[in-house]
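B., you asked whether I could sanity-check this one before it goes into the benchmark set. Here's the sequence:
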Amino acid sequence: MVIKSFQINMMKKLTFILLFVSTSFAQSKAYEFFNSFADIAEEVNESVVTITTTNTVQMDRDVQNFYRYWGREIPDEYESKSLGSGVIVDDENAFIVTNHHVIFDERSQKPVEEIKVQLLDKRIFEATVIGLDKATDLAVLQIEANDIKAVNLGDSEAVRVGEWVIAIGSPFSASLSHTVTAGIVSALGRNDVMNNLNTYQNFIQTDAAINPGNSGGALLNMNGELIGINAAIASGGGRANAGIGFAIPSTMVKKVMNDLITKGYVVRSFLGIYMQDISEDLYETLELQTRNGAIVSDIVEGSPASKSDLVEGDVIVSFEGKEISNGSELKNLVSSTDPGSRVKLGIYRDNKKKNIYVTLEEREDLVAATTNVNYEFGLLLENPSEDLINKYKLNEKNPSNIQGVIVTGVENNSPAEEAGLKEGDIITRVGRKKIFSTKDFLSEMSKFDDESKVLFLVKRGSSSRFITITR
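And here's what the prediction gave me:
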């Protein structure tokens, strides 16, 4: 009996010890896990910036007349201020990535007049715009700053639903800068967030609290790497967070950022098809073998698709061996592939699977439609359009008859202003090369070294003259 009692007591003690050890181990792991949030915040906070913008807004004449009718006077213009966030991605050149909508004024269709960047250490710098891409809602800024820290770029392709993430930004006001929130990845590949056909959407969805002002801020994985730029929220009609936020994946950010920095515009390929996602009705009516993929509904004449074996009714289910679930996913994969690439498309035709090869081409129409900014000289340039012809009372009636790019903005005290450039001028040559688009302008400008003098031929009214500006 004594031996049995001893055994029972020993079992109780052993059980207690095991429970104590396992509980202590679990608590230690939990402490270690949650402490890592603090470690990441301390590591990355320096790389996140607060962006404040100022813009002069012209008051609508009809609104003014309405108030005057009732005996009230309102000013012709007022100052508009807004807030956003950004992430330092290159500490050597002080490049910052943010959202296009943070620094672009939709009313004037121009970047805002003043962009200020505040760092964690309270230093404030005026930023210049390196490039804009409305299609992905991304922009690249640059500041003249030393002793700054860039974030490490992560691989958004490796992100999994359910993993923990951290968001850092400046919600609501600059006084709330570097707010850190945590959550999980709720979904991947969200593409129906913005109702715009001319956008490239492949959002990471998260329930980490993201609010107005967080736009352009960082979404980080548990290694402290940037896996997304926070861009949008779904708030159920309100302005506050409702647990549904969206971030642009880092793979897209990296591609757009590099193109904007090196070329001034984003290089995109196109296939040349009109496509539809597979609805339940189409699945049943066409007796398809899959609900994933995109149906080719039409092929653009002269496009890469028209030069391949693709035909209307083909169901594209993979791109270079990667399965696709819908047309938006295919569009993103095509656009991010280098022009000139020969790609393999997996298709179903008559319920039989086969491969089609297509050589992609650069999407020139998007380049031509893009407003490009070159703030080295303080210039805003656009391709000719009917609106600009009317606005500046140009001699030509047809945009296609105008050879060159139109100056639509000149910064005060900039090299462009000092050289005598004005809004409405048409730049027809860079160096000795004729230019026909903003793409040509940026391509020619990339051939000049820093500090070199660049010769421009500028048309104003019925006369032309040469000017030089130092790059």
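One thing to flag: The first helix runs from residue 2 to 44. Otherwise nothing jumped out at me.
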